## 1
Amino acid sequence: MLGAAPIWEVAERQSTSHHHHHQEVWPSILSNSDRQSQSRSLQAVLHGCSNVSSWQGPTKFVSHPTQLPAEQSSLFDQVQGKKVSPAVWGCRVQTVLPPSRNKRYDALSLSVRCNSSGTQSERAVEIEHQKSGQLEGAKRRVVFLGTPEVAAGVLRRLLEEAAKENSLFEITAVVSQPAAKQGRGRKLLPSSVSALALESGLPEDRLLCPDTAREEAFLERLSDLAPDLCVTAAYGNILPNKFLAIPRCGTLNIHPSLLPLYRGASPVQRAIEAGEKVTGVTVAFTVRAMDAGPVLAQEEVEVDPNIKAPELLEYLFRRGTDLLLRNLPSVFDGTAAERATEQDHAKKTEAPKVRIEEGNLDFEQPASVLHNKVRAFAGWPGTKATFYIRSDGSEESEPVTVKVITTRVVEGEGAEGDSKEVTLSKTGLRVTCVDGSILEIQELQPPSKKPMRGRDFWNGLRGRRLYRGEVEAKIPY
């Protein structure tokens, strides 16, 4: 027996040809357990042949309907019944792996060359491949790609599901960005996804950290792993066509927006910045263009007016993982690709990467705009505002730049005129913007200090006044 348990095997069938009945044994295609290479791992055996002289592949995979057409059946009878027999001197089988994606059924294309009675004939026979998901005990091979902590949450859930006895899949490998310098000490540390993968017991040679997904050594290693599916979540590298051609069932991405809205690197930040009341998560097939692939599933989510980007991002990826898991059976049997819908590209919006300078707050803008920025840019890059501290009767003011952490818009209240002086309420510092709207700063962080409540910052002023901009000194008469 060549290889492990059959990966492609077609059972016996009964047929009637030329008014006589006989049993036919269809060819079985056997593979080693790893299917490590398209061109090296397959072994072909033709039952009833005295000699399989050579196997050459891969060639081309052919989609096939559920049953062999009548004309193909007749052709198969001719080849299988008489010529492919113990009397045959030899035959050559050509086939390929992996199956064509986006099709419910796969077929093996066999080119059988037979010598019989001194006459050489060649026939091409298409054999139906069993519907994916019906192969007993064969778990689908999934490769996960992700980098930050939020992606580690997705991987953790997938590992938990893969460990279940009745799971359809296993995590064959994990791909993440290389270790990077982090923190104040600038130590070289692995990504959150890499750390979790190793903690979970994944062999080190199954954790791949290429600088880019275009590296030939990486693509060759991925091809050797022969994944059925790749899943990406905040990976951070562009995937080339060579990559996308490798997984049998394609590559699925969990994207935290309602595509085609907010395509790009910062969908959650940009949605919050824009004040969206509804957003969502999408599971979509990956194509070469960014976030432009067919949509498999989507879920809408209402956006709390005070939620910050890191919380919403984590929540959307959690919902997206549930969405992915619910759809995996149809992904593996091919029906998901058939029902995935193209995006309306005319409605696309962009979500470009956030720049550090975008975190500066300008009180020339309305309070609602500033509040959305504070929420959107929480974590990184954060938001900063400059205030001016002044003692009564002094002609000089002292600037102080603080990190603004938590805010709210004071509804139903507004100041008349352009009041630059900051006041104190029971819950925080109140700043009047140019249009009269009021932003309340509930939590902030002064330079070289820990985060604190707005009231605690106010108490530290010790009677000095606070302004949102420079003011002229009041000259006592």
## 2
Amino acid sequence: MQSHLDLNLPSPDDIKTLIKQRGLTRAEFADLLHASKRTVDKWLQPVTSDDYRQMPFAVWELALLKLDNHPVYKLAIK
């Protein structure tokens, strides 16, 4: 079984691709993760930008789980 540690921190392009694949707006993506749109905007800045902030690994994994895109785990529905 693959470990969650096989995941890497996302690049801005990884995040943009996930948002686009799921047909979400940045605001919807922010709401899904209980983050502000401003925070999402910082995750999406070019890595060389002064405004860039790395998305935390736990938030990336949560996004993958909530959007059913995690390579190993699936969320259970009660």
## 3
Amino acid sequence: MFSLKNILGRLITATVVIGISLTAMQTTATAGELPPGAHRIGVLNGDTLLVKEGTLFATWTTQLSGVQKFEIAGDRIGVLTTDNKLLVKEGTLWSDWTEQATGLKDFRMTANRIGALRTDGSVAVKEGDLYAHWIEQTNGVKDLELTATRVGVVFDNGLASVKEGNLHASWVDQIGDVADLELSADRVGVLRTDGSVLVKESNLWSDWTAQAPDVKQLELSGSYIGVVLNNGLATVKEGSLYATWVNQVADVQNMQIAGDRIGVLRTNGTVAVKDGGLYGAWTEQMNGTRQLQLAAPPAAAAGRHVSAADLVNIYGSAYATETVAAGIPSLNEQMEAAGITSPTRKAAWVATLKHESGFRYNAGEAGSGEFYKGRGFIQLTADFNYRAATNYFGHDFINHPEDAAKIEWSAKIARWYWTVQRNINASADVYDMGGVGRAIGYHPRLDPTESLNRCASYKKALAYFNGGSLPVPEASIKCLR
């Protein structure tokens, strides 16, 4: 039984096709993303930009001169020229440049968004291809940050504010006295004017967690938090906000993190980068460098989150279907955006989707004639939830509720419900599957059986993603709501 969020629970219609080849379920890079293995390193030497792609020993390719700063995001490379023009290319290192804007003092990019901070302090963002229209955001800005789902600014008065969802969403003020703002997945980090660092995760209303004092640079990337201290020491933590710092190297002016790569620009202008996360070996890259940037394939493309093979390994061949395989890329993309990257978060996510929809993006509530019946990966249900999704995404789910079960929306809605409508990562972090169940909202009449079944699915996935065993004593996992 797939029990969900209405008063009676429900059965989801299923057509199970056994024997689909798992080799056909592998993901490839989508537009704007780097393919697996195609890491990039960029350096600015003088006013000349050089980029390499592949291993740490790949050959540098000269991109452009007359550059004052640059960004690399996915397969896009952007430069702010010395005459304040924004040029962007996408695809290979040999693609042509496209002029995007003039009169800029800074910019930011993701694989699907470009943000422009003009010399007058106004901000505009475009979403989609390089020829999309700019959408005005706000004024009086000194710092701009972007992710695929969030836009963040620091105003001239030091107030940090973030919006989530579509480019017309409302701003949510975060905190004042901010020198620098960083966004990554579901995390928001601030370097304050007094040198202290605070980070929050999940939704924009979460509580702040103090990280470190005496900091001159903050870097967020996936599950990594990195800081460069005022004394030049670069140190990084991975995992929860309470993880232990691991010192990296001294005499650093700037640090970059992308995927499992960490790079440092030292105070003497030399650059070193390492693969393998916190404990990898450094490889020297370049001298005489002014700026360093790293880009990595999305974790989904690198297979870090969940694959169709994972689901079959955990829950059996019933999930080796073409429909399940078709939804995997979008699930991985939204897991990355939501910070669902640790074993416990991934386990809570897949266990929930197993019981909600059987991992089918197009799942619908069987036997229900209701206009706002359960649909999609997480079974969006009831008019108030369809209305909230409409307001968040700027798409009319009220008049077109069937769109919630389309592949272009199903995973996005699941991510939104998981992190915006609810704060489900917080329950997953403390191994509280009962708390996950409360947030999802299946009917109490189904308990305790439903909660115990979901918890059993969670434990299976948790052991799998943790390398074969549970990371905590089984008795410490809360199953009941």
## 4
Amino acid sequence: MKVALQDPLLRIEDVAALTGIPVNTWRTWIASKKGPQPAKLGGRLFWRRSQIDRWLDEQFAAAAASERK
């Protein structure tokens, strides 16, 4: 039985496709503790969709704030 998650879990390939940021960049960020950090579940890395959406919103807000300076 499949259960639909209200806040889906994303693998690194999903996050890369969603953001347009290459998988290798995400791997570098994970290692250097930059960007949203994933949870390790069953030996695999996952992000919540809401976590990625929130991070993207923060990036756009920071960019808008720097444009106003």
